Amino acid sequence: MADHIPLYPVRSAAAAAAANRKRAAYYNAAGLGPGADRHSRYQLEDESAHLDEMPLMMSEEGFENDESDYHTLPRARITRRRRGIEWLVCGGWKFLCTSCCDWLIHVCQRKKELKARTVWLGCPEKCEEKHPRNAIKNQKYNVFTFIPGVLYEQFKFFLNLYFLVVSCSQFVPALKIGYLYTYWAPLGFVLAVTIMREAIDEFRRFRRDKEMNSQLYSKLTNQRIPSDMVFLRTSEKAGSCFIRTDQLDGETDWKLKVAVSCTQRLPALGDLFSINAYVYAQKPQLDIHSFEGTFTREDSDPPVHESLSIENTLWASTVVASGTVIGVVIYTGKETRSVMNTSNPKNKVGLLDLELNQLTKALFLALIALSAVMVALQGFVGPWYRNLFRFLLLFSYIIPISLRVNLDMGKAAYGWMIMRDEHIPGTVVRTSTIPEELGRLVYLMTDKTGTLTQNEMVFKRLHLGTVSYGTDTMDEIQNHVITSYSQTQSQASGNNASSTPPRKAQSSAPKVRRSVSSRIHEAVKAIALCHNVTPVYESRAAGAGETEYAEVDQDFSDENRTYQASSPDEVALVQWTESVGLTLVSRDLTSMQLKTPSGQILTYHVLQVFPFTSENKRMGIVVRDESTAEITFYMKGADVAMSTIVQYNDWLEEECGNMAREGLRTLVVAKKSLTEEQYQDFESRYSQAKLSLHDRALKVAAVVESLEREMELLCLTGVEDQLQADVRPTLEMLRNAGIKIWMLTGDKLETATCIAKSSHLVSRTQDIHVFRPVTNRGEAHLELNAFRRKHDCALVIAGDSLEVCLKYYEHEFVELACQCPAVVCCRCSPTQKAHIVKLLQQHTGRRTCAVGDGGNDVSMIQAADCGIGIDGKEGKQASLAADFSITQFKHIGRLLMVHGRNSYKRSAALGQFVMHRGLIISTMQAVFSSVFYFASVPLYQGFLMVGYATIYTMFPVFSLVLDQDVKPETALLYPELYKDLTKGRSLSFKTFLIWVLISIYQGGILMYGALVLFESEFVHVVAISFTALILTELLMVALTIRTWHWLMVVAEFLSLGCYLASLAFLNEYFGIGRVSFGAFLDVAFITTVTFLWKVSAITVVSCLPLYILKYLKRKLSPPSYSKLTS
């Protein structure tokens, strides 16, 4: 009985109930709240009617799934469509092979689990675990895998695999056609070049690795750090040193690193081995900006426990810039941060290569069809399958092996031309396989800071709430500073600190408005103290020189001082305080010294530093004034982070908005006075939190947050990041070329919007739609509806709102955003940038380009079809990871409009002409075989076939890489011409079909002409038809060329000369073939007038109609560029 119960109605009822529950839960979450039961139905209906203004996949199926996997539905449906044989044919076999290979690799290279470790100082025998060998290995292959690996990389392409099968078939006697070298010589040449190139690259990598791995280290001074270490001791008296991290994170600024205080205090170096101490380090991980560990010394009373953080580490691949350091190794080899963060970038394949691969497959199908037709016309007599295979071999030239060689040589030529272009000096082509991509771009993703802007910060504005100072009134601030410090100095005999009067006023009567002079004094002092900047004196012979002289003015000479910091904003602020009279002259781990306008040195002891992170968006410092012993907590940060920390005010939000509209980067500065008791209480809780091994970051943040309450707002600063040279005309040119530009930045919304306007990324006439912050699906739905009603407006969206939209409405959002003329995504993380690039590739199928200059742009650059890195102030990491490296953003215009256009047009012409060259000779073979009773006998043998694709026609055909349809000046003046390229009309099935028809026409004329005109001298048909074929090819190259270059003329005559010279030497080949008739060429016959006029007649008939057609096409339907050039 139970067997007959239908289960599906029960399931659908349950599903319906679940769907209703989820729908109700969703609408409640969307802001409806738990209304009365009676009205809930009507509320739902009303809300759904409102939401349905834009159908965003609100199907039953959608509600049955969890919200978390909601966005995967469309893809899941697509995946379910193909199954069985169709799936296997449409790429399933490739998927299966890849999966098997991945599984084998995973089994062979199974990674061991990463664990935390305890490292004892000077006692390696106490270490229980084995750690990886500290060796760098950048090689792709080893001795055993080199040949198989290189061959696999080559034969995974259809073209090369096809020729391998054809060449191998010649070892079978029944299938042999002609000579072995006619098949193996071209294939062997291609493979030899590839293997040699890979071998040279591999040997260079091996030599670099060997040189790096054979270095011996004892003390590290101005050397690359070989492994991840904890910093124990330095020769610098301050107990700190600088390191350069440009090879790790792409930043050029020096970073300050601090030695473990317990080991730095040891009297002698040898004591490191006599103490009983160990380092506990967390398990290896990817994050280069964080570290948690502890240092413990057990032989002291009581035992010393010291927390270790990122400032106590020296990561591998960084360089010690000052002094000598000694450390204990904690991670080696594969477990170092630099190796773990090295991802293998994907091998980029150009769209043109993919299109040619498709055409190659079409030619393969044509080859099979033609061979089958020949066997069918034979009547399937005898061993027909053997005849079928022989015909496949006879017509194998339909797919030319020289296609890959010509295109690769062409790409190398384009790369050479780009690097030699004097208009874009310093440009480097790092990926030589995709120059044609530069001519096919539709979306361009660009970073803001350092890419569109110069990353050169200039202090522009100081706002105190009631009064604002700009560049023209900075001298007033200087006068106030001089006045306030001269008053302070006169009061110095009474032991009053510079900040005592305002402090008293604040403590006794906080509501009394202080004088403008004292407020400026406090603000400038706060900016001069609250930072991570270190002054460096270049002319010092000793590394520690600048910290040895604390009180002598002449040692801090201004002309020798430069500032080092991890942020250019901070350097700009400190340089500004110097310009108004308060100069930072010295800094070490524990103290900071400022010089007043009168030359007095003020010393402050640094008690705590809370560094800036992308999460907290603020940095703080606690200092003690040496002269007064007063403790002050200073903090500066972004307005979004600081607005909740400072005391109530009515001007901050408005002024931040005003400055952002001017394109200024804003920082809010605040302070808080602490008593000795308050600070001691804070310090004990802070030290305890730093020593905890679990949730350390959360505990530390909670303790610091207890200090960040009711802070006094001092001022608002505005720093300008100036635009790069010619950014506006370049963006204008790209927009006119039909390229849609998206700006992806980590900066805040107001600044990003302002730079978008000032750089003309958004034109003056366009509206801007600022996408409101959304946190759930309902809000995202309503906001997308509002955005959908806007037309021709730029979109500005924050990273967190973007995340919500992509979670629920990925397809709809991308579809709407792609219709915008410009998109600005602010507050984007590096992974979000790469994700946006991949989304555009998936949803539009168009070619994308990413432009950036910093380490945070690398993932975006590697994800894009074409990555362009700018060699900028943020280091070379983006430049090294990119496919093309440039020195300025304005060079993108010429790179795309001129070189992108030429590369694509030339490769399209070259590829199709090489195919035409193979098709025409295959057509002649087909005609020849059909005349001689469908015999599978080759028309041309041996060297003729090799020479045809090489010395007779190679130079003229390859000279097409010098052709250009418009002059560079015209391409730059009329960027609208670029739009035609993105449509892919230069290489399509339509143009390919035209070339196929031309090949069939010419091949037929040449063969039939030779047979008809030379009936009496039938034995010379090979010589006649081959001569006409060579002449036809040379004339067709001339027909294809649009702009002549002197090298093209040389190539034409050189090839003709080579052919005529070879007639005398290769006469044995110019019979119909010794296999069939045993006839040989009569040299005297070639010199007769009869031979010459008949060859000329055949050539004219094959070429003249095409010249006439080309002339008529140019007259009746000229291309768009010809109207401009005329």
Shape: elongated
SSE class = alpha+beta
Poorly predicted ranges: 1-20, 22-55, 57-83, 496-512, 539-554, 1071-1080
Average residue pLDDT: 80
What profile does the largest beta sheet have?
9 strands, mixed
The top-level CATH class of the largest domain is: Mainly Alpha
How helix-rich are the residues, as a percent range? 40-55%
CATH-derived topology of the largest domain:
Calcium-transporting ATPase, transmembrane domain
Number of helices: 42
Please tell me the total number of domains: 5
Q: CATH H level of the largest domain: which superfamily?
A: Calcium-transporting ATPase, transmembrane domain
Biggest sheet, spatial arrangement of strands? 11-30-29-28-12-24-27-26-25
Architecture of the largest domain in CATH?
A: Up-down Bundle
Distance between the termini: 88 Å
What Rg do the Cα atoms give? 37 Å
Work out the number of β strands. Answer: 30
Percent of residues in beta strands: 5-15%
Q: How would you portray this structure in words?
A:
One of its GO terms (cellular component) is plasma membrane. It catalyses: ATP + H2O + phospholipidSide 1 = ADP + phosphate + phospholipidSide 2. It is a multi-pass membrane protein. This protein has 1126 residues and is an alpha+beta fold. The protein has five domains: 135-213, no CATH class; 226-341, no CATH class; 351-427 and 894-1074 and 1082-1123, Calcium-transporting ATPase, transmembrane domain (Up-down Bundle); 443-452 and 724-886, HAD superfamily/HAD-like (Rossmann fold, 3-Layer(aba) Sandwich); 459-484 and 517-535 and 561-720, 3-Layer(aba) Sandwich (Calcium-transporting ATPase, cytoplasmic domain N). A hairpin with a 7-residue loop joins strand 19 and strand 20. Helix 13 crosses helix 14 (384-394) and helix 27 packs parallel to helix 28 (799-818). The longest helix has 41 residues, at 891-931. The N and C termini lie far apart (88 Å). Residues 1-20, 22-55, 57-83, 496-512, 539-554 and 1071-1080 have low confidence and may be disordered.
